[in-house]
Amino acid sequence: MTAVLAASAERRRPAFSLGRWLEREGVFGWLMVAPPVVFLVALVGYPFFYGIWISLQDRQVAKPGVFVGLDNFIADWHNPVFWQVVANTFVYTTAATLLKMVGGLGLALVMNQDFRFKNLTRALLLLPFIVPTVLSTIAWQWILDPAFSVINWALMQTGLANPGPSWLGNPYLAMFSLIMVNTWRGLPFYAITLLAGLQTIPPELYEAATIDGAGRWGRFRYVTLPLLKPIIFIVTMFSVIFTFSDFQLIYVLTRGGPANATHVFATYAFDIAMGAGQFGQGASIALSMVPPLALIILAMAIYLRPAKS
Amino acid sequence: MTVERRGWQTRLLTLWLPLGASLFFALFPFYWMAITSLKSNQELYNRKIMPLIVHQPTLKHYVDLLTETSFLLWTWNTFLVAVTSTAISLVLGAMLAYPLARLRFAGATLVSFAVAATYLVPQPLLFVPLADLINRLGLGDTLTSVILTYPTLLVPFCAWLLMGYFRTVPLELEDAARIDGASRLQTLVKIVLPMCGPGFISAGIFAFTLSQNEFLYALIFLTKTEVRTVPVGAIAELVKGDVFYWGQLMAAALLGSIPVAIIYSFFVEHYVAGLTAGAVKG
User: Fold this and answer.
1) Domains of chain B with CATH codes
2) CA of A147 to nearest chain B CA: how many angstroms apart?
3) Hey, is the C-beta of B108 within 8 angstroms of any chain A C-beta?
4) Residue of A nearest to B256 (CA)
5) pLDDT along chain A (309 residues), means of 10
6) What number is the ipTM of this complex?
7) So where are chain A's domains?
8) What is the pTM of this model?
9) Chain A residues with CB-CB distance to B51 below 8 A
10) Where are the alpha helices (DSSP H) in chain B?
11) A195 to chain B: nearest residue by CA?
12) At the topology level of CATH, where does A75-304 sit?
């Protein structure tokens, strides 16, 4: 502050006035951003680094932590369940993201036509995305119930299976079911966002492409896709981050079971930290999300990013 | 899209069939939720009865849910937390967005970079240290714990969205107000904010639905019935050991979804605007 005063004195301004000082762009700007910045530093920045500190300790419920260096991370590295969690998370994220991306793009193309009740349809299709996830997942849990699954009822009625599979009890089917429910919830987000992107493409481009002899596929391949790429990139990046770190859906449907077959980083870290009370170990598992997530985002930035827009 | 006259067969194949299938996939779980909540236990657990319709509807599960559990209290908690954290997030978000959108000051790039980074931090990364922090502050089992932490998920989004709206206010208007002697704060409050109403509605709706949706922090910080939110209450108290009270669970899921769905239906356009603003403009 003294520096500011000195600077204004040098320029032989009239005597210091608080009102005029507040009107300066830098002062006013910082006064505005300071409260939210302090808030985010206190509740995001500080916890992030504090979490790293916890991960370097042997820290159990109601006991003071003991610094152990990288021991927790080394223990993760030698833990076969941890590697299963890594594999599960990758399978879950990759499959669900691809399904949502392809399905969402398809649905967006379907929706990008003129038809009656378009706005109503769009509103209804978005419902899975806005309804609290835990609540809709409870409905899915009942749909996939071992004894009273409506899917199995339908399979039995049509004679396809009797008595029908255990959707959440079989390790492979459990993962498959989680991916389907995640797709159910996330697909509308892709569809509606990509639809908004489609609507920004000028019709003249399609006309020009048609004149140049492009068919339906050609127009999609050389007009729609390249122009949609930046939006696909952003949507996919968000979706990958939140699918990779998903907790709610898996916690409600399987709690990571059967036999760790569907544990992902978030549910496993939760189990170890909150269930077993090993905070240091749990923090190290949660932090292990960062390097793979950073690599995925980097890879996507390289392959999906628009060359220059 | 180019307007082409196509036969009804093409229209059926490229529009109505995929659209119908998507609508069925999207809406069936809600239908299932609704009819399950209206079935008696005898009907629910009888595999010989055709399950797709309700044979003898009953409101028993709703009555039990409202009288035997703390569902109404959970609903009130959820609402209170969502409204408060949305309000906090809008205020803090606007305080970040306006200077970043309109003013030049040292460190602005750093701040906007930090806000974007905060937006990308997934929740499960922070729950261990935050649980410890909340404990040390003595905020365990208080609604304050979630009212304080939810805005960390919402502020970056609100700021990002509002920046777009602040940029659409013509600079000349602000300049004119300043020349007429208005201070920066007066210009912001009297000229800029009134023009950004739709932005605040979009960000507000989005923040409200996100706070209704939050589960992880609520699960960890709120362990007593009196302070629980609907998702945590349903999972923790309508499932006893291995026994699922399916009728009550479905009634709770439906009742818990209705407030969000109603608010959403009034502001669909704003919600979609908020959803797509970042992606399309970004």
Assistant:
1) 61-281 (1.10.3720.10)
2) 9
3) yes
4) A135
5) 51 72 87 95 95 93 86 95 96 96 94 88 91 95 90 88 87 96 95 90 90 88 89 88 94 92 96 93 95 86 63
6) 0.90
7) 75-304
8) 0.90
9) 148, 150, 153
10) 8-11, 17-37, 41-44, 60-68, 71-102, 108-120, 127-136, 143-168, 171-179, 184-186, 193-195, 197-213, 216-221, 230-237, 246-266, 268-281
11) B276
12) MetI-like fold (1.10.3720)
